[in-house]
Every structure is written in structure tokens, then in C-alpha cells.
Fold this protein.
Amino acid sequence: MATYLLLLIIAASAFSTLNADISIDCGSSESYSSDDYSIGWVGDDLYIQHGESVELQSSKAIYQPMATLRIFTDRKKNCYNIDSEKGSKVLVRAYFFYGNYDGKSSPPKFDLHFDGNYWITVETSADQLVYYEAIYVTKTDTISVCVAQTFPNMFPFISAIEVRDLDSKMYGYSDSNRALMLRRRVAYGTKAIVRSTDDFYDRIWIPAVNGDDFTVLTSDETFIEVSLDDSPPRALFQNAFATDNTSTSIQLGTNLPTTKVPVYMNIYYSEASVLDSTQKRSLQLLVDGKVNSKPFIPVYGTAGEFTLYNLTANSDTTFSLAASPDSTLPPLINALEVFTVSDELTDGTNSDDVEGLASLQDEFDVLKDWGGDPCLPSPYSWDWINCTSGSTPRVTALYLGSFGLSGVLPDFSSMTSLEIIDLHNNSLIGSIPEVLGTLPNLKQLNLAGNDLSGTIPSSISKNKKLKLTVTDNPNLCVSGKSCKTASVDTSGSGGSSSSGGRKKSKLPVILGTTIPIFVLVWVIGGVCAVLHHKRKSAAIAAGNVGQTGGANKPSGNPQAAQMQMAANNMAQNVVNDFIMNVHEQQSAPEPVYNDDQQNHLEEGN
């Protein structure tokens, strides 16, 4: 029992960790642990069902998560949805390794989005791995990573996605309504990549290249104290780059774009040796040759950090770390992070519309694979909706005709900006929700070609502003009183049936005529049999009287004659009644619909 409980605890712990930090191998269906960095990877089956999985064929060794990819050849955008906690600070990383998977030696370009925001235009390489990273505070409980085609014949793909939860205090000088977009993260003096095994938050620190311009310093302290809010890994502070003299500065490579953008920069440092009383190392940051900071002094055995923000720069801007005028030792640096700051993050599509779309997705499996923000970024909305413009768009149209929907319509009445709902040619069943008639802006409702039943709600049938199409729903009654089926056009355009509608059944007319005639024949036959019996009885009686020598009187019995006359009258009445009933059933007029209903019921397409 104890062993069983221990296994449950371990499983729960693993599940919690998986929810917090996830590494998705796109295009793979396997779960495995990477030997390189002890990272647990999962296939993308649970996150997306669209697109095509491709396995790279190469004679060279490929890092396992990059050996597969998922390519998308249709839709405006294709998205992965990953569960998160609203308001959490996360690091999201997306990888792209082309590997000439299509044999065309033509690496594509396409857009990358997150949570309805434009991220970057991905420029893949023929044989190099590229990745992009964003740090931000989530606004919902779902993280979305999307790729969108932006150039003809250049199909977007993705190789891997990673999400890491960060401490809320990390990168604390950044605006919570904006994202930090990584441009460079480098470790000076290290010989290998520093990440998950050394960095609790699995940031990737690339070793800086030393062109023999710098002296590599190794710390005398084996255990560096790191108590910074940004929690840089301790491994960064074992080595550093330094110049040979105080007059030479360290030029910082930033990888910034050519256009000016807001910049966020972290400089990490630690003194490598115990200094005597005559030595002093003091640093200052220069931007375009001008001092931009107060002096900061590295401390032996302790990690230090300088953060630069509220500054705009581009690729032409120079950043350098120089010795302060009173410094006796040259400048040093252990690590550097450079980010650009995004525009203000969107709140996404209106929450009422998101709720309504979620109801549709919960009901219809065919819609569940549409992810990301429904409307944003513009113009990359879902293919089957229309949206308004603006920072918080509304959904104005649903175009779900011939979409393979099967089931009962859920309640999506929260989508109050809807003007068009097109659900024709599906397999919808049940009644038409009355709440659809309460949508204040609805102008067109097309429900033709389904299997809806019941009557049309009065909130819809009496709405003079609504163009309604309900043809080819054989079990749907267009009027509660007449229950006339909707397989015949009931629009104001006349009484002709729609071109795609089902033929009106003549079975009720045939049965209504045949059954009374059959009964009538049966009754007449019975009456004739009775009359025949009566005549025979009367003849026998008359014969008996004549044989006894009666007086010279009319032949036959007067009582029998009266019975025969009554029978004749009864038969005639029965025949007349049946003829009148049959005539009434055959000539009954069709139900008449009032003018209001005729004005807004339209023939199906």
C-alpha cells in the first residue's frame, strides 16, 4: 500500500511538473528523455491534429527533437494550445530546423504568433537551427503558439516548442503588458551551452566566441553566491572575459534589428579574484560612446547584475563596457541578455465571443482543432469567422455551411455582435434554440439542409429584420398551428420548391383517398348482402301465403316491404356521407400564413 501511494505521489509530481514546464517535439508521437540536457520531450498528438508530420532524412547526426517537424499547407494560421495559469510569467521558445525536408533546398519564411500577438517573421536556414524566445505574463489560462503563411508557396512548419514557468520577480523592470523578445543570450568564458542542468529555468546561454581579444578569467571561488531576482545560473560566474588594460572596453554584440526599438538588457558580473588594497575594478556602460550608467563594482564570490531599460536602439547603436576613470583593473563580463520590448499585448478577442466559440467547439469535434486567438492578429482570424477591427475585436459572422457539424446546437448567445450565422448543409438535429432570436444584431440565419425538428421559435419567426432560411429540414414545422414542414419554400418569393430541397411527400393524400374508398366499398358490399337477404326472406313469405288460398291481394308481405325501403334509405345515406367526406379531404385548402412570416422566410440555396 505504501509503495502504491508513493507511486501516486511521484506520478502527481511528474504531472504537475509537466503542466508547468513542457517540451513538445512537433511531428513526433513519442515521449522520451533527451540525453543532451536531461529534458523530457513529448509528442504533439495531444496539442494538434492538423498538419502533416515529417521525419527528416539526413546522413548527419540531428538533435532528436529536431529530427521531426510538422508542416501546414492550408488555413491562415495553425496553432498549438498549451495550458497555463492566467497571470503567470512564462518563457516560450519555438524551434525551426528546415533540414531540406522537402528536397527543394528552399528554406521558407513565415510569421510566428503568440496569444494573438505578432511575434516575428521566421527566416529559416538551410542547415542551421533557429529559435525564438519570448518572456511575458499570460492574460488567459492558455498559451498559443501559431505559424501563419505570409508568402506564396512557402508553407510554415515548426520543429519544437518549449514553455517554462518563471518566478514572478524575474525581469522585474519590464512592463507586464509587454513581452521581452530575446535577441541574444551569451555566456563569456564557458566552453559549452549552459541550460537546464545548470539553469533551473532552462534558459539557453550560448558560449561567446573569443577572437583572442580577451583574457579568460576563472574564478578562484568554487561556490558563487547568487541572490539576484533574475536567478542567473551559478555556472555563468565561474568564467569571464576581460580586456588586457583599462583603456580597452568590451564591445557588446546585441543582434538588434535595423529599426529602432525599445531595449531591455541585463549585464552579469562577478569579481574573479581576491583583490588587494591597491586594486579596484569599477565598470560603467557606454551607449554610442557616452556614459549611460553609474559605476558598478564586481564583488568577489558574489553575482552582480546591471539592467538597462527605457532606451531605444538599433543595430547601429554601440554598447560597450568600460573601466571607470578610477578603476585600476580592466572591465570584465560574465554574461549578457539582450531583449527587444514588444508593443502592448492584446487582451484578445472579446471574452463573450471566445466563450460562445468554445461552446461550439465543445459540441462539434470538427471545430476543436482550431486554436489560438480567433480574430488576432489581423488578418489571421479563423477561416470560418469574420471579426471587427480593433484591439478587442468582436465576431460578426459564422460561416459553417457544409462543415460536417453533427449534433444539437449549443447555446452561443453570448456572441451578441453576430450578424450572420450560416449553418446550412450539416447534420444538425433537435430544435432551433429560441435564444438565437434574441441576438440583437442578427440579420441572416441559414439553417437549410439539416435535420432540425419542432417549430420555429416565435422570437425568430416574428423578427422582421431577420432573413431566415430553413428549407430542406423535413421534420421542421414552420408554424405551430399548421405544422407545415419546411421542405417547401415558405419565403415571400412564392410557393415554388427550392432547387436543392426534398420532394413533398404525396403519401398523406394517397392514404387519405384510398382508405375511405376501401371502407366505402366494404360498407356497400355489406348493405347489398343485407338487402339480398331481406328480398329472399320476403319472397319465401309471399310464396307461403299464395299456397294457402288467400284473397286476391298484392303479392308479398307489407312488413317486409317496409324493411326493404328502410334498408335502401340507409345505404343511400351511408354512400352520400362517404362521398362528401372524401370530397372534403381532397379539396381542403392549404394552410394560409400571415404576411409577417412571409416577409422573412427565405428559400434555401
Q: What stands out?
A: Residues 1-19, 487-571, 577-605 have pLDDT under 50 and may be disordered. The chain has three domains: 18-166, 182-344, 351-477.
